[in-house]
Amino acid sequence: MDTMDNLDAEKVIGIDTEGMPHFHSVKEQVALIQVASSTAVYLIDVIALKKVLDEKQWLTFFEIILFSDDVVTIGYDFNNDLRFLTSTFPCLSEYLPRISNVFCLYRLLSEVLLNPEACEVVFGSKTFAINLNLNEVTKLFLGIELDKSERIGNWAQRPLRLEQKRYAALDAYALIGCFRVISKRLNKLKSASILDSLKHAALMSPASNNSRPDDLNVTTKPETYEEFLSHVLDVSLEVQATKPVGTKPRTVNDTKFALDSMLFGLGKWIRICGFETKHISDRVRLIKFCEENPEFYAVSAGKAFKEIRRCLPPHQVLCVPINTQDSRSNSRQFAHLMRQLKIVINEENMYSRCVRCNKKSFCRVPKLVAKALFYTKVLFLGIDWVGISRDHVNSVLEELFDHAIKEDEFPYNGEIPEGQYAISSNEKPIICRCKDCEVDITNQLLDFGDEGAIELSMPVNSKEPFDEEFQFRACLFCGKVQYR
């Protein structure tokens, strides 16, 4: 009870947990809770106290460290700690919607790295590369190196060794020290909206609470292509305007990326921007690939970044911060890379490379031809949720034939103009002759030369693209149809 009284009087506390080894429990279980105040660190022996404290007493303790409006609680990658705590104390789950004033330092720093102004006041540069584990962060802001060798110790064994106690205590106490240094630097920011954005990014809130102020940079709405494009084009103008005199910025022609499995989502968007991008899930293979192909930048995040950086030249390894709470993180992560490498892009670069196979060779597919491919494929596969019937398909095919070039309308040189097509017969298979290829609607094939036909891959998730002014293209290597 004295511990709870002391903590209740604190304004800022740091919290960390240590879990039991998996061979002690099938479920994730907390063995130790470390709570740091400004003057002391309390090591809460969960294994021992669960035998003597009842549920009500535990909830009183959590009321102070998780649900109090008067205490600011600092954690690091705190989602993991919450998962361990709710697994150990199932009664906590129903109270989580009341979580209050709990800040995740990992989320805060991830957001800082993605914001140039905040990054400059916290790290001294608008672009900064750091592996955001607590040891690296503590070393940077406090000049203290944590002994991580104790992390994998047996935290279920009693009594704890002195080295374990020191490690556990310092982990929690370092959170308060880092938070104070970072907060002091952030107070130099002139923009209140950026400060609000950082606060909301770091603030732990229940998953059911999606309400956020409209003007904040943190959002739960999916990022659209238009939003992504607008952001990266703005950053491109910024890079162009701030590059050192006499230097040339990088472009899609001289910049290549190899990404690990944590960043495949980002890799897709980088390909959309026209950059040659390799997705390599195995870390050892990624390192070997970059050793053999030094023109590629290895891009990673978190712990993987540190391991990759040990094996490759420092200039070849890039780290991007991850903020899982912001669905617009793809454009912000790529903007982070653009600023680091001084990259500029333009709208013509977008979709200049196949997002599936990474190749850069396409042929134009007229919109009505792509529409016929889509409708016939949906009907063939029986995908009823798209809302396409046989009557819809017949109507689309009728439209396809009505707009085809007639033989007597061909230009004098016999070439079919860009964006148009001809159909030589009303019989199946329905083959559309386009400017650079032939498209077999019936069999979903593309023929563009002497190599033989390849199977087309038409996305079947939505018919909305055909209501917009999109251009459709097919990759000549893998057959994927994409639009822009």
Automatic annotation (TrEMBL):
3'-5' exonuclease domain residues: 1-187
One Pfam family of this chain: Mut7-C
Gene Ontology annotations of biological process type: nucleobase-containing compound metabolic process
InterPro entries: 3'-5'_exonuclease_dom (IPR002562), Exonuclease_MUT-7-like (IPR052408), Mut7-C_RNAse_dom (IPR002782), RNaseH-like_sf (IPR012337), RNaseH_sf (IPR036397)
Transmembrane segments: none
Superkingdom of source: Eukaryota
GO MF term list: 3'-5' exonuclease activity; nucleic acid binding
PANTHER family noted in UniProt: 3'-5' EXONUCLEASE DOMAIN-CONTAINING PROTEIN (PTHR47765), EXONUCLEASE MUT-7 HOMOLOG (PTHR47765:SF2)
Protein name, as recorded: 3'-5' exonuclease domain-containing protein
Organism: Ditylenchus dipsaci
